[in-house]
Amino acid sequence: MTAELPTIALPGTGDRVPRIGQGTWRMEQDDRRDCIQTLRHGVDLGATLIDTAEMYGSGTVEEIVGEALDGIREEVFLTSKILPRNADREGTVEACERSLRRLDTDHLDLYLLHWPSSHPIEETMAGFRELLDEGLVRSVGVSNCSLEQFVAADEALGPDHDLVTDQVLYWLGSRNVENELLGGLREREVPLMAYSPLGQAEFPDEGTPPHDALSAIADDHGATIAQVMLAWVLRHEDVFTIPKTSSIDHLEENLAAAEIELRAEDLERLDEVYPATDSSRIPTL
Ligand SMILES: NC(=O)c1ccc[n+]([C@@H]2O[C@H](COP(=O)([O-])OP(=O)(O)OC[C@H]3O[C@@H](n4cnc5c(N)ncnc54)[C@H](OP(=O)(O)O)[C@@H]3O)[C@@H](O)[C@H]2O)c1
């Protein structure tokens, strides 16, 4: 990996973040040293966007990330997420303060509502405003929200701030966001953050049409199947993504995917084996 990672600008703050960052879900199940070494190596290579959540390992993953950030906090664009059940006004502020303690930092660069909550969105957004005003978070967004839910949350946030992204499931095998959300965010100049871009490593079995298509395209580009999957998500300029890995080899492989440009015939072949859907429902994991 030699080339610099491409970046994308977020609305409001104008912060630039790498189009490939680092996810952390289920890292508590991996070797702690591998996680920390991989996250730090990723930052060295420019993957300075790290995504975590209070839910991951019930706080353990935020602690792992906090340890990984020792001495390099300023280089990182740190994102965490609040559990919907905590997301009333006061609970939002308290949950963020707990996350900051676990992450051993005084602010988050981005704080997301993990998925739509039974608390009124006005409450959550009031909590988000308080966190923004106090400087505990630099920007806010949502996750797993439809366009309608995104717009309602953005309105509830008020005129002084904008939601900077919607983090949603998007990979070859799950394309619903293409129908309404992606275009709606694009009109508002809001980039989409794609999670599980590798389909959680559920790669197709050898001998199946999706596997044959992916491996033929990968061979043409001198790439791997995982890299083709990432390049496919990144074919939209206003999408960025956060594959998770605790392996330095996988990390380097994933970041190199930023250099792959799929051709029209590759995309057509992938459309055949991973057809677009006509549903706008936002699936969650
Ligand atoms: N907002 C939400 O509701 C939500 C939901 C899900 C995920 N997320 C976020 O998005 C991140 C990414 O999604 P994800 O973790 O669900 O799935 P993912 O990134 O699609 O896949 C992760 C899996 O792929 C493996 N992997 C990574 N690179 C690989 C490579 N080059 N070759 C082969 N295997 C590879 C990883 O194992 P190794 O570690 O062994 O490499 C891991 O098992 C999460 O970690 C989390 O931060 C958010």
Describe this structure in words.
With 285 residues, the chain is α/β, with parallel strands linked by helices. The chain has one domain (16-203, 236-247): Alpha-Beta Barrel (TIM Barrel), CATH 3.20.20.100. It contains ten helices and nine strands. It has helices at residues 32-44, 60-68, 89-103, 121-133, 147-157, 181-187, 209-220, 225-233, 248-256, 264-273, and strands at residues 7-9, 16-18, 49-51, 77-82, 110-113, 140-143, 163-169, 192-195, 239-241. Helix 4 (121-133) crosses helix 5 and helix 7 packs antiparallel against helix 10 (264-273). The radius of gyration is 18 Å and the shape is globular. The two termini are 31 Å apart. The model has no long low-confidence stretch (mean pLDDT 97). The protein binds NADP nicotinamide-adenine-dinucleotide phosphate. NADP nicotinamide-adenine-dinucleotide phosphate is lined by residues 23-25, 51, 114, 143-144, 167, 195-201, 226, 242-247, 250, 253-254, 285.
